[in-house]
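2024-03-11 09:14:02 INFO receiving multi-entity request
2024-03-11 09:14:02 INFO entity count = three
2024-03-11 09:14:03 INFO echoing inputs for audit
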Amino acid sequence: MKYIDEYRDPALARNLLQEIRRKATRHWTIMEICGGQTHSILRNGIDQLLPESIELVHGPGCPVCVTPLESIERALVIAARKEVIFTSFGDMLRVPGSSKDLFMVRSEGGDVRIVFSPLDALQIARANPAKEVVFFAVGFETTAPANAMAVWQAAREGIENFSVLASQVMVPPAMRAILSSPGNRVQGFLAAGHVCAVMGYEEYEPVAREFHVPIVPTGFEPVDLLAGILQTVELLEEGRAGVVNRYGRVVSREGNRHAQEIIRQVFKVTDRQWRGIGLIPQSGLGLRESFARFDAVTKFDVAHISASESPLCMSGSVLQGILKPDGCPAFARECTPEHPLGATMVSSEGACAAYYNYHRNIFQ
Amino acid sequence: MQHETVQMAHGAGGRLSQALMQRIFMPHLHNAFLDLLDDQAKLDLPAGRVAFTTDTYVVSPVFFPGGNIGELAVNGTVNDLAVGGATPLYLSAGFVLEEGFSLAELETIVKSMAEAARKAGVMMVTGDTKVVGKGQCDRIFINTSGIGVVREGTALSCRNLKPGDTIILSGTVGDHGMSIMTSREGLSFQSRITSDSAALNGMIASMLDVVPAIHAMRDPTRGGVAATLNELAASSSVGIEIDETTIPVKADVRGACELLGIDPLHVANEGKLVVVVAAVDAGQVLDVMRSCEHGRDAVIIGSVVDDHPGMVVMRTAFASRRIIDLPLGEQLPRIC
Amino acid sequence: MCLAIPGKLLELFNENGLKMGTVDVNGSKTRACLEYVPEIQVGQYTIVHAGFALKIIDEEEAAESLKLWQELIESGAFDIEGELPSPELS
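2024-03-11 09:21:47 INFO inference complete, emitting structure
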């Protein structure tokens, strides 16, 4: 596969690893923000191959993991309604609310459908004018253009039986929250390559300056990840802060202006709850007033639904890089993929699930 | 009046039931047993232990690139007998039809069942049809049961794995599951990934002719190769290690898996075989498999080990290791 | 987050007023919305996420960085001192 196989070349990976070994003279803690990168790191065992002095901690960049429990509860209530076809990316169906998940709603008669693209949800709305079609619009900046386009297009075509349950989040405010936390251990970041494909990396430059950290936009294949880690280590060793792009074939400084424009037209920046972490000011996107009629929360009057999380779950610390999944007392005991206490154990890219699936017992 | 779709009366045992039998089922499936139209088939079995299995097929969509529910129902049951070292002989078929299902499509399905049975060398000797109201089933469900006789000198069991054994895979993984997933509506795919649905009893017979002492065989259907290897490791309380670089995946299957974020090892196959054999016999078995149509791409993917009993571990292309776990339920396309 | 896969644009079409295309991913074909990469041409590679093309892959940049790594290796900047130790199960 062009643009994949070259970046899975074991010889190239081995050479980059040697270079990392040569460059790293002391212990460094690096966070990969994006859950997709966590997944790739663990799936390919990259953490096992790095020198011990390089510690990777796993960030909050998993929309499934950080979608607040109250959004899940609202989804469950809406999906159970007779007139509703509830559409979602496959990722969200197994995420537990306080007593059930979307699969259970479906088994109780709810019409819950998996879509690959938000435009597929819009198509379902066109084909079922007598039904209310709701799309669970979760995601970081990468998914925001897709979700925004579905709303924008619904407005343009006048598809009034379509609405979204939006739980959009953004990376830079989360990065600031992590760096400002008193328990912070993170010294450098691999920035999420596909978020940067949309947003560019200009907005990370002030973060790098303010907190004096290296930030390296990085891709998802093993060679990309190792190149990103090498660049971060080089910057750390030289005591330099700043943004250096290591995913040049996909990321530019300015990002995708067309996508940013639609996001700006449809969404506005809001405060947002992150599951496990809590409220991060100005870290989410909500529908603008001009698109408010597509907001499922008001359409189905579910604003009053709130929820709180299991006190056993420590996913907040995991998501901020303070705790590793297997450091949690509930890991692989009270909390497993079959019976997850928190969303980090649910999503295939959640750090807890990735540890459970790929690493459990290997090094015990 | 000639009906074009299934009516409730087709399952009521009266005139229409008979018409369905004469028009659709008998022309394709007829044989000395079925032609008697008795309520049961009376069979003479060769000497040996009888193997008996059943499976129910509810696949959606009913027609997919490379096959349909009918041949799947025949091949699946034939394979379930064959992987136990049995020679498949006789099959039954029970149909649950949804009111309104197209009779032309039903005939296509029955015809491909007849062809699949002929290819596999088995006879469909008894059957049943029921009709349920619109919405009470999804178009057509088929149950098949099968009887075979276990070959003398074989003792295949998933409890037979011994450290040192070699693990062979008969070909590419994920073809069937991705064919189904990419032909479902609403996933924006225009793929023509072809299902691998096939009867494997011919190849298995050739393998057992050469090495009767094969330790275990499984067809990695639901849950894919990952689930099969985990079941084998757990049943025999041994560890399994496989090598990522050896697992064959077709180009388009790999593309679809990457796009949907699905691990090909977790995807269902309907014409593949996982074989566990003593290392000394591996070469011979592999040669036989490669000489068969359904084993051309057979490869050694790993071995049985003393370490980590009950667990399957994969050595990655980067010489790191990861656990291959049981997939958790249905494979869902993901965006993250 | 954000599974996005590179694919090659095979054809362009219009649907409900949106610029759309068929993208080939290793022989599997999927539809993608091209509104965010309006300058894309058939034959170019793009990154697809949730049914949307997000960026045309910069082929020159890709070739250059691969070449750079290759050159570093050849120049001996990467010193290979034997095989890496592979992690063992205990």
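2024-03-11 09:21:48 INFO post-check: The mean pLDDT of chain A is 93.
2024-03-11 09:21:48 INFO post-check: The domain at 65-170+255-299 of chain A is CATH 3.40.50.11740 (Rossmann fold).
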